[in-house]
Amino acid sequence: MADVPLTLRQRIWNPEARLAYVLLLPTTLFLAAFMFYPIAYVFVMSFFKTNKLSDLTKFVGLGNFIDRFEDPEFWWACVRSLVWTATGVSVKFLAGMTIAILLNVKYRGRKAARMAFIIPWASSVPISALLWQWVYHPEFGLLNHTLKITGLWTNPPGWLGSPLPAFISTMWVDIWIGIPFFALVFLAGMQAIPVELYESGHMDGAGPVRAFFSITLAGLRELILISTLLSAIWTFNDFNVIYILTRAGPANTTNILITSVYIDAFTNLHFDWAAVQSVVTFLILSLVSVVYARFYFRQENS
Amino acid sequence: MRWQNRARWVAVPLTLVILLFLLFPFFVMISTMIKSGPDVYADPPHWIPSHVEWSNFVTVWTQYDLASYFLASLIIALGATVLNTLLSVPAAYAVARLRFPGRKFAMYLLLMIEMFSPVIVIISLFKVVAGFHMLDSYGALIILDALFTVAFNTWMMNGYFKTIPKDIEEAALIDGCNRVQTMTRIMLPIAVPGLVTVMIYAFIFAWNEFLFALTFISSKAKMPLTIALYNFVGRWTTQWQYLTMAAFLALIPVLVLFYVIEKRLVAGLAGGAVKG
Fold first, then answer.
1. Which residues of chain A lie closer than 8 angstroms to B86, CB-CB?
2. Predicted ipTM?
């Protein structure tokens, strides 16, 4: 039977489509109230001055944006976000790859090692951050104690108390949480690569290093792309670790874009500034999500 | 292969060293949770407690209302799991199996939502939640926790529904089942592993959630574990032996559940590029 072109009415109002609408309705309603409307409202708010109760008081057009763009602290937060994300993802990637390679070697107890490596990811982020706070404690923390007694670092810093060490140590906690994701994804990818490929590579005289670059890495290409993208988004969005460990301090030195939204709103009660930062963050994430979506749909279609 | 044999001699010791390094905070947790108060603040600090203070386990329940926080976390997480399942399973069936205009757009929208940090809408969510008179209520957390995993879970279930051959469903439709019946009697039973994954994921997300609880819960009686533990730090001298004990207990359920879904979660996140 030849395909008869459906009329517009038939396409949007047939039994199958109607069932789809019914099934999607509850989710749509909830999302409309708690996601789409709030996003729209943040945009609206960014064009208004607000009072300390977050009520809109006066329309100022792009005034808030100009205000924020003229404030060096805003640009510092952007720079920190960039450094935070770029460094974080790179270290997670390299560490994850190393661990995946190690776990791909067959030995007894490998399963147990794999389970142990997952713990930082499986653990609850707020609880991990609290544990790290205690680990980093300058006087009574076991990190500095261990560094001293092993002679690795006789005069370690106070970690969360001073600017640069605070940035590095909060970033490390974020990295630490994110490593297992890469390790597991890469391991799964490595195990999906047929052994025959390595065998024929071996016959052709390829050593382990050559084999790693031309067989393993080549086989992981798609996975590397998608997992790096995902990890970048998560790293960029990491609010919990910073808020719990330093509340973006000392003196804003661990304040990145995502934390500046919350701190400006609920600590400084500057809701209009927070709205501008929300909008900027939203736009950045939307841009990234377009890349991600194109990639994902290509996979779905193939 | 031969180099695999040699690799073992490098891999095993290296793995142990890295693990020792990465699990450091958990060793600290275990060491601290069995210490007595003076031991925790000993100068210089020490790894091995001078004696094992078993009573810490009792104290966190009797003096610190740990049961109340556990209950709050449980109510919120179970509520979010149920709501999330009720929303994402039908939605996933629709995008996986039904033809309707805007299907692609719906998928795309879900993907975008998955990228969002709830922080960017938190200022307006505060108004919405206040508008529904849901500040300081479990309801607000249940709804928000459920919604922020709806996108991911719909994608996951969509993947599971798609692996079920269309023939099975069509045969049932011909036999006189309607769409709702094929979904509840045929699709769902086959998709049980996916359903379990999705439910556990929603549960874990809600159990670990921090931002919404921090922003919307103010009364002590309704505080979930994450916020209760967070508030415990910094007031006077933090009694880390109780905090680490409570942290240990709060971690057990999520660790166990995470291990159940870990493989399927990785497969789902990698977008079907690896098999679960």
1. 26
2. 0.94
Report the DSSP beta bridge partners of residue A49. Answer: A58
State the number of CA atoms in the 13 A half-sphere of B236 facing the CB. 2
How many Cβ contacts (< 8 angstroms) between chains A and B? 289
Question: Rounded CA gap, A176 and A155, in Å?
Answer: 23
- Residues 58..97 of A with a Cβ closer than 8 Å to B: which? none
Cβ contact B165:B97 at 8 Å: no
CB of A248 within 8 A of CB of A255? yes
Task: Write the single-letter amino acid at B238.
Answer: T
The residue type found at B136 is: D
| Cβ(B213)–Cβ(B139) below 8 Å | no
Q: Residue written as tokens 């692996």?
A: B163
Chain A residues close to B101, C-beta within 8 Å: 11-12, 17
- pLDDT tens, B20-39? 999 999 999 999 999 999 99
What is the pLDDT at residue B12? Answer: 93
* pLDDT, tens only, A109-151: 999 999 999 999 999 999 999 999 999 999 999 999 999 999 9
What is the phi/psi pair of residue A256, to 5°? -110, 180
> Domains of chain A by range and CATH?
91-221 (1.10.3720.10)
Q: What is the pLDDT of residues A86-105, one digit of tens each?
A: 999 999 999 999 999 999 99
Instruction: Indicate the SS3 state at residue A59.
Output: strand
Residue ranges of domains in chain B, CATH in brackets: 64-232 (1.10.3720.10)
Q: What's the rounded Cα separation, in Å, for the pair A240 and B209?
A: 9
